[in-house]
Specification:
Shape: rod-shaped
Number of strands: 0
Number of domains: 1
Radius of gyration: 33 Å
Distance between the termini: 110 Å
Strand content: under 5%
Length: about 80
């Protein structure tokens, strides 16, 4: 192997190693992002369910609050 071939082979080996390290780092970052997305998706689903329950509660309370308000107005007039 000539000196130039040896230098090129070593350079190629270094570049391959660096590329592999970068790929591994990117894969790790990608896995972390996927985990964060899954967590955020679960949180969003929980929040959506909580908002739905609050909306239902508000819907049920509205007529009761209206009746209570009418009763209080009736007591003040009487």
């Amino acid at each position: 192997m000539t000196e130039i071939e040896r230098m090129l082979t070593e350079t190629l080996a270094v570049l391959e190693r660096e590329l592999r390290q970068k790929q591994e780092a990117h894969a790790k970052t990608l896995r972390q992002l996927q985990q964060q997305i899954a967590s955020l998706s679960a949180q969003q689903q929980e929040s959506t369910q909580s908002l739905q329950r609050l909306s239902e509660l508000s819907t049920r309370l509205e007529p009761l609050l209206t009746r209570l308000s009418c009763m209080l107005v009736g007591k003040q007039v009487g």
